[in-house]
Amino acid sequence: MKYLENCRIVSQEEISPGIFDMNLQTADIAGICRPGQFVMVYPQDGKRILPRPISICGADPESRTLRLVYRVTGPNTGTGEFSGYVSGDMIRISGPMGNGFDMDISGDETVLIAGGGIGIPPMLFTARNLNCKKVIVLGYRSDTFLAGEFGQNGDVFIATEDGSCGTPGNVLDAIRENGLKADRVYACGPKPMLRALASWAEANGIPCYISLEERMACGIGACLSCVCGSRETDAHTNVRNKRVCKDGPVFLSTEVEL
Ligand SMILES: Cc1cc2nc3c(=O)[nH]c(=O)nc-3n(C[C@H](O)[C@H](O)[C@H](O)COP(=O)(O)OP(=O)(O)OC[C@H]3O[C@@H](n4cnc5c(N)ncnc54)[C@H](O)[C@@H]3O)c2cc1C
Ligand code: FES
């Protein structure tokens, strides 16, 4: 079930330069969404027709508040518009969209949760809701936003490109430096990170589930603007394609072309 809702902004804060943390009062979406799903957020400026996909960073099913953490991509953009909203303002969203991560994991399994850059917010929602052993690896350029909130959910390893915190380098450098092992991988982040993780997981015989980001328009599987290449022929389009909005955004890494 998907909902189109006008939500009141409960709070909004800039938690790192250009990164905003927005909490919304929803009617239903926060009560039914799963980690790895996203919402479509509608700009109010009439020049921007298309909604913007933003992953769910947190949801409280009791109070029905939904948390979105997003990066402003530049001036005169939809995300720039969102960053100007203050508590009390209204915003239209639809969702929850997409499949999300499989949360039905045996307590004996260890999941390596990996997030890179603005791919980190959905992994916080995932880490908080997975009931199994967790190893968390976060990759940043420099500023380690949200890292402190992962602490209660497992052992956290950080990599920064400028070497200011944790392992100098990327997520894979932190995995190798700390000799990390797992039974499966859940990840969201830039494509080069996902590619590197997928080949590390394949070399170690571990299933690797990745959340992809493609440019989107409709968000409901109709326009095909978000397709990525797949290994198998897709039943909907009859070509080797997957719709990231509808079939994903989470895929087994061996299903898709990275
Ligand atoms: C499933 C999914 C989850 C995402 N989760 C987050 C998140 O949690 N936090 C976050 O900061 N960003 C996230 N993104 C990226 C975010 O959607 C884009 O940064 C945003 O749409 C850019 O819009 P804009 O108005 O700032 O830029 P503009 O350049 O004005 O956007 C123009 C158009 O291109 C689309 N577009 C531009 N970049 C992207 C992109 N990378 N992915 C999809 N569409 C894009 C916009 O939606 C819009 O329709 C996610 C993307 C996807 C597909
Ligand atoms: S955004 Fe239209 S099919 Fe995915």
Description:
With about 260 residues, this protein is an alpha/beta fold. It has three domains: about 5-95, Beta Barrel (Elongation Factor Tu (Ef-tu), domain 3), CATH 2.40.30; about 100-210, Rossmann fold (3-Layer(aba) Sandwich); about 210-258, Dihydroorotate dehydrogenase, electron transfer subunit (Dihydroorotate dehydrogenase B (pyrk subunit), domain 3). Helices cover about 15% and strands about 35% of the residues. The strands form three sheets. It has a seven-stranded antiparallel beta sheet. It has a seven-stranded mixed beta sheet with strand order 11-10-9-8-12-13-16, with helices on both faces. Strands 14-15 form a two-stranded antiparallel ribbon. The chain is globular and about 50 Å long. Bound molecules: flavin-adenine dinucleotide and FE2/S2 (inorganic) cluster (FES). Flavin-adenine dinucleotide (FAD) binds near residues 53 and 77.
Keywords, please?
Rossmann fold; 34% strand; 7-stranded mixed beta sheet; 3 domains; 7-stranded antiparallel beta sheet; alpha/beta; 5 helices; globular; 258 residues; binds flavin-adenine dinucleotide; Elongation Factor Tu (Ef-tu), domain 3; binds FE2/S2 (inorganic) cluster; Dihydroorotate dehydrogenase B (pyrk subunit), domain 3; 16% helix
